[in-house]
Write a structure and sequence with these properties.
Blueprint lengths: L1 E6 L2 E3 L5 E9 L1 E12 L6 E7 L4 E3 L7 E6 L4 E6 L8 E13 L2 E9 L3 E5 L2
């Protein structure tokens, strides 16, 4: 059993900052990659940023220079620091995790998990 929980969303004025957190817990043997997606009303879910097991990060063009993705491997957590927020950043943000589970300490299958989402609203 694995749980993925996001936190840190809220309402902020344009130009403000928020820091999202995502924690994965449970029968985790190793984490392959983690990513943040977002979905605005009436739009498809889009990839915002991703980070590999080695720490390499990628960002969608619209957030480059404003968002920073970091990872705490020891705690199975990732963070998305969002600065200079714009109204178009308003969306529900979802954490996505690719991980290998274990059963009684023995590596098992690679599975894909989503968190429940956290709302980010940028408005004056």
């Amino acid at each position: 059993q694995v749980q993925v929980v996001e936190s840190g969303g809220g309402l902020v004025q344009p130009g403000g900052s928020l820091r999202l957190s995502c924690a994965a817990s449970g029968n985790i043997f190793s984490i392959q990659a983690m990513a943040w997606y977002r979905q605005a009303p009436g739009k498809e879910r889009e990839l915002v940023a991703s980070i590999s097991s080695g720490g390499s990060t990628t960002y969608t063009d619209s957030v480059k220079g404003r968002f920073t993705f970091s990872r705490d491997n020891a705690k199975n957590m990732v963070f998305l620091q969002m600065n200079s927020l714009k109204p178009e950043d308003t969306a529900v943000y979802y954490c996505n995790v690719d991980l290998r589970e274990h059963v009684y300490g023995v590596p098992y299958r690679v599975t894909h998990y989503w968190g429940q989402g956290t709302q980010v609203a940028v408005s004056s």
